[in-house]
Design a protein that fits this description.
By secondary structure, the protein is mainly alpha-helical. The chain is built from 17 helices and no strands.
């Protein structure tokens, strides 16, 4: 019962804290009216968080912070710092200040997301796919939460959206520190050693999982960033009077609701068919959706939403499994470092794919923009097919050990 309670409260905290990720992205139209900046500045505001996250995660991974300090304390401090930095955006005097604050928020989030995955991995030695899937579902829901908040505050004041996200992050810090308990086997701490990172790089199945994750991330955040703009343009071409708040609600459903469903059921299925099999299935369907979604542009709104919702389910359904594979193949002493390293490089890759989309838009139409994202899952599938032989070997080794014990 304790572990289910822990999963619930950690997931709730993830929803609240991860609302910081896109809290500014959803109010860019309002900020553009204030400062009249161009698309070049928009790209910087969008990319600042993943760049900061990647830097924070790389530093944390290099120092082994996730394996040296209490996970609840790291989460709580970073959630409070992130909330305060996000609140400072209200008082920003220029787009450059917003970019810098967003960069710092990304660093703070590096102490929230990877830490939570490691924390839940300690609680769940079995049913790990479902547990981490539920957690990533919470991350997905939290990332899309500003779109839902915008529905309620649309046309009132953009500062309320920022304030709401900061308050939610403060609530997350309170929950993690005062409500959640430490995992039963979390007392062991590792001392700093650069060998921790070397062990990650030298672990072949761990790196194959990383390569799969990198392909997955190439697609994921570029889709989350640009699907709202794609939907708005598509809906407006079909129905010029389509309200902006309704588009925000559709985006929340596609990213948040569909994504959460994908994560939870993906985790349940992965516990039965194996994590690598689940990732191969999810990336195959996701790649197919990225190839066809553009051809729904300007078509029936419900056709576009349907395809986008399927994409929203499968683009994230496999995300938790890359972390589960890490926790299965990495030794306990460096699993936190391994998870942080995986996410650091993965989010750094998102900066490239996010900025690739507007570049492609300049030379073509929306119909041909998203296929560029299919490259990631295709390469990811190749890596996961190679990983399968290590999973088979591990199962065989476990079977041999069980026979010896008998």
């Amino acid at each position: 019962m304790r572990k289910w309670k822990t999963l619930w409260w950690v997931s709730v905290s993830q929803v609240f804290a991860l609302s910081l990720w896109f809290s500014t992205s959803v109010i860019i139209p309002e900020l553009e009216k204030i400062w009249e900046f161009d698309s070049f500045v928009v790209n910087f505001i969008t990319a600042a968080v993943p760049v900061g996250f990647a830097l924070g995660a790389l530093v944390s991974s290099s120092l082994g912070l996730a394996d040296k300090f209490n996970a609840r304390s790291i989460f709580s401090v970073c959630a409070i710092v992130g909330a305060l930095l996000n609140g400072c955006i209200i008082f920003a005097q220029s787009p450059l200040q917003v970019v810098f604050l967003r960069f710092l928020i990304g660093i703070a989030l590096a102490g929230i997301y990877p830490i939570s995955v490691k924390f839940i991995s300690q609680w769940y030695q079995n049913q790990k796919g479902f547990a981490i899937g539920t957690l990533i579902g919470a991350v997905t829901l939290g990332s899309s939460l500003p779109h839902l908040i915008r529905v309620f505050f649309y046309g009132i004041d953009w500062r309320l959206i920022v304030t709401a996200s900061s308050i939610l992050s403060l609530c997350a810090a309170f929950i993690i520190y005062f409500v959640v308990e430490d995992a039963p086997n979390s007392s062991k701490r590792s001392v700093f050693s650069i060998k921790l990172l070397k062990k990650v790089v030298n672990n072949k199945p761990v790196m194959l999982s990383n390569y799969g994750y990198f392909g997955h991330m190439w697609e994921l955040y570029a889709m989350w960033t640009w699907i709202p703009i794609f939907l708005n343009s598509s809906f407006q071409s079909q129905l010029p009077s389509f309200p902006a708040w309704a588009t925000s609600l559709a985006v929340f459903g596609i990213i948040g609701v569909s994504g959460s469903i994908g994560c939870i059921f993906g985790g349940l299925i992965a516990d039965y068919i194996g994590p690598s099999n689940l990732t191969i299935i999810a990336m195959t369907i996701s790649a197919f959706c990225s190839l066809i979604i553009g051809f729904t542009f300007g078509q029936s709104i419900w056709i576009t939403i349907s395809v986008a919702s399927i994409w929203g389910i499968f683009i994230i359904a496999d995300s938790a499994q890359f972390s589960a594979i890490i926790s299965n193949f990495a030794d306990t002493e460096y699993v936190g470092t391994a998870l942080t390293f995986q996410m650091a490089i993965g989010f750094l890759i998102t900066v490239i794919s996010i900025n690739l989309i507007p570049f492609v838009v300049r030379f073509t139409t929306w119909e041909w923009v998203f296929p560029a994202l299919s490259i990631g899952p295709i390469l990811g599938i190749i890596s996961m097919l190679q990983l399968k032989k290590y999973e088979v070997k591990k199962v065989q080794n476990i079977g041999e050990v069980n026979q010896l014990q008998v």
